[in-house]
């Protein structure tokens, strides 16, 4: 389909596709096996200026937005969802600085993030606060001109690899979510340590670790937005970032579809390619239709955000739900197309199926996203009746 990309957007997409094929695809299986973080690819993305695409020009970016980031994430994810996540998760950690950072915070961090010199991460989830993000326990107690952070964040992507972290902590536990605050915490700050690297089912080339805070002191100038606005910072960040998860899902699904179509033409049974059989053709047709529909919704959500629409929670959640459910269906069907071979690690589609699963879980499970969509539908209906 023609999505009417500008020349700059086509260049960004094609460059990301080239890196995916030349730098990522050859090492995807190896890094899936070893779990090694893809620093060499990150460096390539940096020197290729792809970290700049969603950062404002006044901070050494290219002035694009979520749509440009989605184009990059989709192309990288066709080759490896885990390696692509290292890029996308830095975007997630960068968004709150773009949205809520002071001029000084932006000047300090955004040029370095734009160059790919350093990575960012976002820390909200805790052992007992996943979908119920309002139940976080990590505290940042005011102490003079500082906050002293104590607590644990769990399953943080880019944990241990990123340099700068947006951490959501309670500055006034008596006020519940209204007592949470977003703080920037730099790696190496005394009292800020990391747990073990998680051994995951999929996206194994990405780094996922606990963040452990023990009397970690940060200056009050580390606040993003204002004290008590931490939950708002988190929700507004996710509204912006969810099309990135959707783009990752679209890329994984599209990569699996490409492999399935090629294999169906090569694999012969009963004396002819299995692509000649109507049952196989119908399966491939459904897979292709689902991928294209997911891509269209993802692009629409990203463009809506970049267009300045204020209330984007519904379309952002729709894109994330539909694309991630699509990725799980399409990768599962790709394994089916490959038959017994698809179940073997020598072939790429089993990895794609493992990588796809997380897109239904992180940045808000799909069950939570459906609640967000429904609540917004009801609100719109009530407003329409007034």
Written account of the structure:
With 386 residues, the protein is of the alpha+beta class. The protein folds into 3 domains: 7-119, Orthogonal Bundle (Butyryl-Coa Dehydrogenase, subunit A, domain 1), CATH 1.10.540.10; 122-229, Butyryl-CoA Dehydrogenase, subunit A, domain 2 (Beta Barrel); 231-381, Butyryl-CoA Dehydrogenase, subunit A, domain 3 (Up-down Bundle). The protein is 52% helix and 15% strand. The chain has 11 helices and 10 strands. The chain has helices at residues 7-24, 28-34, 39-47, 66-79, 81-100, 103-115, 230-266, 278-306, 313-338, 349-357, 366-385; strands at 120-123, 139-143, 146-157, 164-170, 180-186, 192-197, 208-219, 223-224, 268-269, 272-273. The strands form 3 sheets. A 4-stranded mixed beta sheet has the order 1-4-5-8. A 4-stranded antiparallel beta sheet has the order 2-3-7-6, with helices on one face. A hairpin with a 2-residue loop joins strand 9 (268-269) and strand 10. The two termini are 40 Å apart.
The helix-and-strand class reads: alpha+beta
Mean pLDDT, all residues: 97
Helix content: 40-55%
> What portion of the residues fall into strands of 2 or more residues?
15-25%
CATH-assigned homologous superfamily of the largest domain = Butyryl-CoA Dehydrogenase, subunit A, domain 3
**What's the tally of helices?**
11
State the separation between the terminal residues, measured CA to CA. 40 Å
- The run of helices and strands is HHHHHHEEEEEEEEHEEHHHH
Supply database-style keywords:
single chain; 386 residues; alpha+beta; Butyryl-Coa Dehydrogenase, subunit A, domain 1; Butyryl-CoA Dehydrogenase, subunit A, domain 2; Butyryl-CoA Dehydrogenase, subunit A, domain 3; 3 domains; 11 helices
